[in-house]
Structure formats: structure tokens, C-alpha cells
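INTERNAL AUDIT FORM
Audit reference: QA-55
Scope: verify that the stored structure record matches its stored sequence.
Auditor: D.O.
Record contents follow.
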Amino acid sequence: MRDTTRTLLKVQAEDCPDETLKALQSKLTQQYDDFYAKYGLIHSKKNKSVLRDDCSYNLLLTLEKEYDKDKLVTKSDIFTKRTIKPSKAAEHVDTALEALTISMAETARVDLDYMSKLTDMSPEKLISDLKGEIFLVPGTENTYQSASEYLSGDIRQKLDKAQAFAETDSRFAENVTALEKAMPEPLKAGDIEVKIGATWIDPKLYEQFLYETLGTPRENRTDVQARFFWQKPKHVKVEYSEHTGQFHIENKRADQSVNSTREFGTRKMNAYEIMESLLNLKDPKIYKTVEVPDGMGDTKEKRVIDIEATKIAQQKATKLKNAFKDWIFKTPERAVPLVEQYNRQFNSVRPREYDGSALRFPGMNNSITLREHQKNAIAHALFGGNTLFAHVVGAGKTFEMIASVMESKRLGLCTKPLMAVPNHLTEQIGEDFQKLYPSANILIATKNDFKKENRQQLFAKIATGDFDAVIIGHSQLGMIPLSKERQEAILTDQINDIIAGIEELKKSEGSKFQVKQMERTKKSLEAKLEKLGKSHDDILTFEEMGVDKLVVDELHEFKNVPTVTKLTNVAGISSSASQKALDLFMKVRYLDEKTGGKGFIGATGTPIAAPFELK
């Protein structure tokens, strides 16, 4: 029955005559009816326990379209209809634009040789006819990109490169012109809101704001040297640490003027201390010590927020914020370079639009028609980089993932795709895969496969088999280790970053609590590194399996990669690490290196998890 089904799919793909089709359909009907009479549904628990180790079991499941408990209701269309129609690419077109459309659909790139065969035009003629539709990429000999690809992304970066090449090569003049037109409309000072704590602002500007607003004494300014070499100056200096993401103001108590302690600050928290809190995106808080019962008839000291003093400090903070807002763009000497910097850093990206209307999907079940948004999403996964399918539930993400895998394999964009789905959905996704691509050769891993005694055999099967896709559960993905060398390198990098961060904090007299937290994290990573060094597991690694495309369904289950942020008590942002998320993060980093940022697809209906129920 399995062999007949595969033969039936093969001859349909080869556009067999109706007589051949009907003969095979009749044979399959007889085989299925005999099987059903003896053993019941293929979906039955008993048959599943016997047949599930055969990688074609999911193909056989698709023969039963509808069933009720232990009774067959409807057989699949393959028994009576032609479910696969051969999809042939055009062999000849008349225009260069048509050839470009077919080239993108069939090769996922601008392939001038292929386009020449389609049109009988020379590459030179095609380039001439497609002026404005394709662009020569600077720094390459003969690589062209479509306008949708070239005129998207970081336009300013591409423009800088094109202008540099245009100085010596006139061919790139059209690149410069097109990129200038594609550049997002530049924002003006009135369109930009700069808040205290923005890290793209030079710390020297924050320093200058304090000097001018508070009238910092000359001897406390960094641009004034001490009169005598033995004098140690108390410069009020604003510093920023890249390692910790923290601002620090040195010598905050050096200036005890009215502006510092009354106008923009208080006696308990002066303006420089308030400013440091604002720079680190925190509300200023003032504490006091009170005595409280210790539960044993005596009292003990406890630090609590001084509500009245804190209210006054926060009022002064608001005053500082307003002063900064008025000051930052007040003079052209400051405003012009800041606006230019903002536009360069944050207003240079144009999103790419993807059109999947020309995709053909050879081998897909012809009774299933993908919707426009699904085709466009698949085009995004094929022609763009790492992709997130973030459609609402019911929009068809499963078929998008499956079709993206099969098209990537057909176009040579990947050789071994791995799909990780929720554990309880592996077989259901397998059925959907066979439903959409009946002739696909897929491997579905089961719980039994990941038992210690069977794991190595499964990994070897994945590494040596030529499957269209391998489907595993989320928990099983974590059982496939990265190589010891790669894990050691990642852990060492993290430890080195933390060491540098601790040194920065100590140098800037940062929070002792932060230092202790970072030292605790460092010890934890060192313990992992030591444990890794003692490991002698000779199991096949993720790299050795040859996976070059990873697709993860229900991606929201991998949240909580540790996030470095100055903000506190932000719902949905955790400073604690999820091992599950960290493992996926490291594997995606590896795939980015291997594929140039084109080896990952994620899918979720809830890309943003609300911390509370929306009313």
C-alpha cells in the first residue's frame, strides 16, 4: 500500500495518462480495503504502535481523510482524483521583465544566464532593458539584485558604499540616484524627542547641559585644569559604560550651589544625583531609617522610602527633564549635528516588500490553494533573511512553514531543514506536511527516538539521511548539543564581557549590588564551563548533523533570553535566563554564521505576550 501510494504520486508528477492513473488508483483502493477489513483504520492505536517506526507512516495516514472513532468516513482524494499536477516553469518569455520575475521565483536571485536562455537575449541586453529594475552590487564583479532587494534595508549604508564606488566607476551613478530617492524622508528637530538617558547622545553633551543649566563652578568642569600640579581636581564628569549600559557622574557632591541643592535638587539629593538617576532611566528615590518591631519585644532599624522627600526630588527631576528638552536643540551648532546623527542611526531603513505571486510550488497538492498573504510570507522566507511568521491564529502559518522548507530545498537554498514544533504536535504537523506535499520524504522523531539508548541512532539517521524535512519536538531540540568547542567559546565570551563590566562598575564606583549580581553570574558561567570540560559524551552534535535551516513553531515558548537593560520592573522583560531560550539563541547564532543570516524561520500567533489581560 505504501509503495503503491508513492508510485501513484510519482506518475502524477510525471503527468501520466488517465489509464495509468486509474489502474493505480484501483490497485490502491483494493489494497486499502483489504487492509481495513483485516486491521481497521491506519490511525488506530494498534496500527500506530506497529507502523510508526516506518518513515512513510505519516504518508499512509493521509489516505484517511475523515474518520469517526474506529470507523472510516471518507477516503482521501488520491483514490479518485489527480492530486498532483506537474508544475513546469516557462521555457520562453518575450520580455526581460518577465524573465526577471521567473528568475526570482525559480532561482531566488537575478540569474542572467538563466534569463538569457528564457529570452534569447544577451546579458548586456537584459541589463540594459532592466535598468531601474536591477542594480549591480558594489564590490562584486557581476552580481545584480532586484530593485526590491537593493533599494531596501539600510539605505544610508548602501548609499555611502555606492558613492565611494561611483567616484571611480560611472556604472554606479544610477545606484546613487536610486538610493537617494529611496532614502526615508529626513526628520527635523521638531520631529525628534530626545529624553535624558538616550545612549546615542554623547555623554559630553549631558555634561555640557549640567554645566550650563546648573552653573557648575569652573574648577569642577572637565575642561579646566587645576592651578597647581599637586591639587587633585574634583571634576563633575558624565561617563557611560558600554559593558553595563550604565551612566555614572563623578564628584556629584562637589557643587553645593543653590542651583544644585534647591533650584534643581534638594539637600538630600542634589541635581547631579537626580540627573544620574534620570540618565539610568530610574525615578529618584530617597530613603530614611525607621525603627520597627522585631517580633521579639524589641526594635530594629529598617530603610524605607521617605515619601515626602521623594516627591520633592521627583518634582525637581521633572524640572530637569523640561530644562533638557528646551536646551538640547536650542542652538544650531548643537541641533544640526544631532539631527543628522539621529537620521543616520535611526531613520535610514526602508522595509522590503515581498511578492510571492510568481511562486509555483512544484509537488504541492493541487487541491490546496495558498492565499496571497501566505505566498508573500513564503517569498519573504526565500528571498529575505531570518523570518518571523507572526500572523494571527488560523492564518495558515503551518502551510507557510512547510512550503518555505520545500521551496528552500528545491531552490538549493538549504539541504537539511529541521522543524521543531510543540511535542504533542509532531505527528499532526507530519500529517499536514504530507497533506500539502504528498510525495515529501520526511522523518518524524518520537519520544522513543530520544531515549538515551536510541538517541545516537536517531542523530545518525538525521546526519546521513536525505530527508526533505526532519520534524522533532521542542524538548527534543534541546537534546541535540552544540559542539563542546562552540559552547566553550560562547561561555568564555560571556565571562570576559562580565569581567570587563565588573571592572567598569568598580572604576566608576557603581552599585555594589550590581557587582555582586555580575560576580554571581560569572561564577555560574564558570561552573558551566568547568562541567563542559569534564564532559566526555561522544554524541553527534548539531553542527555534525548538517542542519542549515531551522524552523521553530510556537516561538513564544522560547522567550526570556537574558536582556541587559537599565529599566526596572518592566513587565515581560526578564533578567533571568531561560536555558531553553539560550540554547535556541546559540543554535541560531551558529546558523547565522553558516548561512549569512538566512537559516532561521520562527512562527507564533503571539509575538508580544501581554503581561495582563486586555479589557
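Auditor finding: record pair retrieved intact. The chain is about 45% helix and 10% strand.
Action required: none
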